[in-house]
TrEMBL record:
The keyword Nuclease does not apply. It comes from Grallaria varia. The gene is Lrrc26. Residues 161-214 form the LRRCT domain. GO terms for cellular component: plasma membrane. The chain crosses the membrane at residues 223-251. This is LRC26 protein.
Length: 264
């Protein structure tokens, strides 16, 4: 007759229930709706980026909110984020460290905001970015270094900005001319000012359009001459004229005194 096996030690019920409980769902901010790898936070009246996002988030929708500034480290670490959608906010400024931790980002939509200036380090952390939409902002000019910091950029959208077509736009025009294949809406880049160039296509300019700018451009040596040597020369000329005037007056008085002594 076989022997019954001796039962092993039984696990306490609370520990057993803990082991059988399903794993917790990824974090999702209270103002958002989340599905696997996506966070839908659009039209929630948000004034800043929700912080309690899952690190597995690959797509973040933040359209139609009231975000005005992206300050330093506005985002939690999101190493898996590939798409960030921020159009139709009230975004005015982006700090140079705002996008740290988003190195895997491939697509960034900042259209329909109030951006009027971008610093050269704005997009520095986004070394994988392929698509950038800056359309419908308030950009009058754009420093090419902002775009040169994006080695993987393949698609750029810049339409509906109030471009100022003065000599200052020459560096941007050169960059756009060298990277025409990346500018997807190049035919829609229109001057806003000056008035005589309103709605004139930026890409219709040629080298001859900027000849006067190149001829009148000043080098650093020119500025040194104007702002340092110029005033110094002016001051020196005042002292020289004062000295010469004093010499003439002294000589005139000397002659008059000598004439008085000779008079009987």
């Amino acid at each position: 007759m076989g022997c019954w096996g001796v039962p092993g030690p039984l696990l306490p019920l609370p520990l057993l229930l803990l082991l059988l409980r399903p794993p917790p769902a990824p974090a999702c901010p209270a103002a958002c709706r989340c599905s696997p790898a996506e966070a839908h936070c659009s039209e929630r009246g948000l004034r800043q980026v929700p912080w309690s996002l899952s690190s597995n988030t690959s797509t973040l929708w933040l359209r139609y909110n009231f975000i005005t500034v992206l300050g330093p480290r506005s985002f939690p670490p999101l190493p898996a984020l590939r798409l960030l959608s921020l159009p139709h906010n009230r975004l005015e400024r982006i700090h140079g460290r705002a996008l740290l931790g988003l190195g895997a980002l491939r697509e960034l939509d900042l259209s329909n905001n109030r951006l009027s200036a971008l610093s050269a380090d704005t997009f520095g952390p986004l070394t994988s970015l392929a698509t950038l939409n800056l359309g419908s902002n308030r950009l009058g000019e754009l420093e090419p270094l902002v775009l040169s910091a994006l080695p993987q950029l393949h698609a750029l959208f810049l339409r509906d900005n109030p471009w100022v077509c003065s000599c200052d736009i020459l560096p941007l025009w050169r960059w756009l001319s060298r990277h025409r294949e990346k500018v997807r809406d190049k035919s829609s880049l229109l001057c806003r000012v000056p008035e005589q160039l309103n709605k004139y296509p930026i890409m219709a300019f040629g080298d001859e359009s900027f000849r006067q700018c190149q001829e009148t451009s000043l080098s650093s040596e020119d500025y040194f001459t104007i702002f340092i040597i110029g005033p110094a020369s002016f001051i020196a000329s005042i002292f020289f004229c004062t000295f010469m005037g004093s010499v003439v007056v002294f000589y005139h008085n000397l002659r008059r005194d000598s004439h008085c002594w000779r008079t009987p």
